[in-house]
Design a protein that fits this description.
Elements: H1 6-17, H2 25-29, E1 36-41, E2 46-52, H3 61-90, E3 94-98, E4 107-110, E5 118-122, H4 126-135, E6 138-142, H5 144-151, H6 157-212
Antiparallel strand pairs: 1-2, 1-4, 2-5, 3-6
Helix pairs in contact: 3-4
Length: 213
């Protein structure tokens, strides 16, 4: 598992928070779709954005520019979400479940207003559309490993294993250094005490000799 950016970490938190029934792609991205819906047709492998507008016949150049910017940012965000879900599924962090006999029917999610005019932007990238079709109608269930992944600041299992090995190595190195320092200190004091004993013995011998004279 690669290192996640801040946006992907937030997506993981949303997945974890909504774990279980009704934890669909639409619920995860809903807060980003103000005035926007995503339409997905799984049978025909088609998908497009739906933007709510006040007057389709009187859209200013400024509004068109905002719609263009929104199209780019929303497309990039949805691509990020579906790619992350795809990767989490491959890594075994999440499980997907498709329910209902109408799962292949076209679906729409988001916050567009149905009784107001709208403008559509059709996706053309087949891989992107395929990912949307794959994940738009499946419930997302998290695993215990995904829970630990989130709790451990989104560190992948390999990175967690590496950090554990580094901690063990650091502890072993610290113990080895401490043992070396202890050995040096002990040897120093032993040698020092031996020197003192020899000098004292010589001194006592001299004193004894003087007294005998």
């Amino acid at each position: 598992m690669r290192i996640l950016n801040s946006s992907e970490k937030e997506i993981c938190r949303r997945i974890l928070k909504g774990n279980g029934a009704n934890n669909f792609l639409g619920n995860i991205v809903d807060s980003e779709l103000k005035g926007i819906c995503i339409y997905v047709d799984r049978n025909n492998l088609q998908s497009h954005l739906i933007f709510t507008v006040n007057d389709i016949n009187n859209i200013s150049s400024e509004e068109y520019e905002k719609l263009s910017e929104a199209t780019g940012s929303i497309t990039a965000y949805i691509l990020e979400v579906v790619n992350l879900i795809n990767q989490l599924e491959k890594e075994g962090y999440i499980l997907l479940l498709e329910r209902g006999i109408n799962s292949m029917e076209p679906s729409k999610f988001g916050r567009c207003v149905s009784n107001l005019p709208s403008i559509e932007h059709h996706f053309v990238d087949e891989n992107f559309i395929q990912l949307l079709c794959n994940y738009s109608n499946k419930e997302i269930y998290t695993t215990e490993e995904f829970n630990r992944f989130c709790e451990n600041n989104f560190l992948a299992r390999d990175e967690q294993r590496f950090q554990k090995q580094m901690r063990f190595t650091q502890i072993a190195l610290a113990i080895a250094i401490a043992a070396l320092i202890f050995n040096i200190i002990v040897n120093f004091f032993v040698k020092k005490n031996d020197v003192v004993k020899i000098d004292k013995a010589q001194l006592e011998s001299i004193i004894k000799t003087i007294k005998e004279l």
